[in-house]
Amino acid sequence: MNRILLLVQNKQNRRLLLEWLAIRYQVISPDLEIAKQEPDFLLAPSFDLCIICGRSLDQFWESVQRIRELQQPVFLPFLLITSGADVRMVTRHLWQSIDDLITKPIEKVELQARVEILLRSRQYSQNLKAANQELESEIAHRQQVETALAESEAKFRALVQNSSDVIKVLEADGTIAYASPSSQAVLGFSREELQGTNVFDYIHPDDLTEAIATFKASLTNPGETQISEYRFRHQDGSWHYLESKSNFSNAETILTGIVVNSRDITIRKHAEEDMLETLEKERELNELKSRFVAMVSHEIRNPLNTILAATQILENYSDKWSVDKKREFFERIKKNVKTMTALLDNVLIIGRSDQRRLEVKPVPLDLEKFTRNLIEEIKLSTSCKHVITFEKHTNEACVNQNQCISVCLDENLLRHILTNLLTNAIKYSPEGSTVRFKLLCQNEQAIFQIQDEGIGISPEDQQQLFESFQRASNVSNIPGTGLGLAIVKRCVDLQGGNIAVTSEIGVGTTFTVTLPLQNSVSMDANDIVSTL
Description:
Layout: E1 3-7, H1 11-21, E2 26-28, H2 32-35, E3 49-53, H3 54-59, H4 61-71, E4 78-82, H5 91-97, E5 100-103, H6 108-138, H7 142-162, E6 166-170, E7 176-179, H8 183-187, H9 191-194, H10 205-220, E8 226-233, E9 239-249, E10 257-264, H11 266-317, H12 323-354, E11 363-365, H13 367-381, E12 387-392, E13 407-409, H14 411-427, E14 434-442, E15 445-451, H15 459-462, H16 484-494, E16 498-504, E17 508-516
Parallel strand pairs: 1-2, 1-3, 3-4, 4-5, 12-14
Antiparallel strand pairs: 6-7, 6-10, 8-9, 9-10, 11-13, 14-15, 15-17, 16-17
């Protein structure tokens, strides 16, 4: 465990620091009154970092210098706790004795970060010393040892400098009067490139208003630390997130202007954004699961109850019924079984689509015959009480009038598309109304249009029309799962087609599906899309 020596005169500050640091480190807090009588007291305890205030630094400066010299070449860090007003007082010791400083009021997070950086630097230094000792034992010639030591020391200095924050001093109009050397490593700009330019020219437009407000607050509230986050333009044009702490330094101190201490938090911000995105996806997934469970439990419970009731009735009374009466109940059972099967098929299609397991398998198809047969099947399966008209558009100028006879499409996916659209048109239209089905093949495309005279879909509902488990707000008690149009959209997209919808409440809805044809024959129809 790292040992930290605490030389702080203020009892309250010493107590607070001891409370913060004792959780992770072994803290040594000697009696400073006794220490004054022993000039070499710093040599007695073994410590990895010394946290010292300005008064203690002034009193024990010679001891600090001596212990640092004795520790060489191992880096023994000293962290100065001071206030803006005390900077001038400790200047004569600062650059010779202190490796980092932190201004009051002290923030726990900042203190922990700076302590970790200094302890890590000391560890690097100790590792470096061990490496150098091993190197000295292995290399015979003094010149090679000195060269290796110089290179190692240069790497160490670069490591310490690159881990430092960017310090800028801003004038009242935002002009950069000073920029620390670490600007090159963090922002890509040399200190010479930044000095004399305006800091607000580098801040992202979306963050500019808040950054200016923080800057003004620093001017009008001397002594108060202002904390802000904003995106700063890197020399390569990318945007880096900076966390900055700014303080106003008046003319009585060494630095005049707004002193801004910034660190790059881009990696942390991206991690936060990724986490938020993951949480949002998880939330959406949980919501989708909840809606799925609710839908399945409702849509399956009803046909199961019907099947159970019919079975119980048949069990108790079938011996007293005629064949026709029994057939009626058997048909009711089969109908509900088909309903459950269709529901499970839809769920499986959605699942296979999400897992990218749906494949397009085009086969030669007589599209007109296929469409007419499908309409008849739907009429029989739904006990349709609507008028369904079919219209195939042709080009009178074309010699071959057999459009849509020999084309290549995926029959299974096409069946899903047209079945869902036709059954929806029937379901949401009043009995006796007309459902119009139009077909056109032209320009290597098959165009299907299904128009009903039903309840219509509002513009608001159309925005989420093709999402799973979404149903229009005006469906009332009409049964449905909210999966049909989601399946249609996925089947259309999978084949590289598109689907469009126009609707008006109380008037009706028109769906137009366009699918590209593969290896189609006799599809030189006249361009009459506008008539659809």
